[in-house]
Amino acid sequence: MNEIQHAISAREKSNEGMARVCARRAAGIIIGEYLSRRGHTNLSGSTFDRLSIFVSLPEVEDQYRDIASHFLMKVNPDHNLPVDADLIRDAQWLAKNLLLENIP
After folding, report:
1. Which domain holds residue 63?
2. What angle do helix axes 47-56 and 16-37 make, rounded to 10 degrees?
3. What is the C-alpha separation between 40 and 7, in angstroms, rounded?
4. Are 95 and 71 in contact (CB under 8 A)?
5. Does the residue 104 lie in any domain?
6. Residue 22's pLDDT band (cuts 50, 70, 90)
7. Could you give the count of Cα atoms lying within 13 Å of 23 in the half-sphere of its Cβ?
8. 103 domain-assigned
9. How far apart are CA 36 and CA 99, in angstroms?
10. Which whole-number Å values give the CA distances from 7 to 36, 63, 75, 92, in the listed order?
11. Can you say how many angstroms the Cα of residue 58 is from the centroid of all Cα atoms in its chain?
């Protein structure tokens, strides 16, 4: 997936902010595909909207909801997430577990 590769590249260039942005975009694409495969139509192009829908679905297991919620968090004044999370790894995990795809 291109966005995950962009995230990895940004991290390699010590641009963690851009790495998070790209990982969030990847998560939005992954969640959008997951929702589409389950019959959700007219999905917003907004990553935030897609993630919000996903975490609100009663059939979504807690482990998926917990990972997806990392992408909805805002950074603190020091530009860090309030939890210890690796959004690139989380996006890869979602792709692997929701879409059954192995993403580098």
Report:
1. 2-98
2. 60
3. 27
4. no
5. no
6. very high
7. 28
8. no
9. 11
10. 24, 23, 17, 11
11. 19
pLDDT (tens digit per residue) in 37-72: 989 888 888 999 999 999 999 999 999 999 999 999
Q: Which of 68, 64, 84 has the alpha carbon at shortest distance from 76?
A: 84
At 89, list the tokens.
């790894």
Under a CB-based contact definition with an 8 Å cutoff, are residues 68 and 54 in contact? yes
Closest CA to 98 of 9, 40, 37: 37
Computed on alpha carbons and rounded to an integer, the radius of gyration of the chain in Å comes to 13
Total residues belonging to the chain? 104
Please indicate, yes or no, whether the overall pTM of this predicted structure exceeds 0.85. yes
Total count of domains within the chain: 1
Name the residue among 102, 93, 101 with its Cα closest to residue 23.
Answer: 93
In this structure, how many other beta carbons lie within 10 angstroms of the beta carbon of residue 12?
Answer: 9
CA distance 10 to 86: 13
- Please compute, for residue 19, the number of CA atoms within 13 A of its CA located in the half-sphere on the CB side: 18
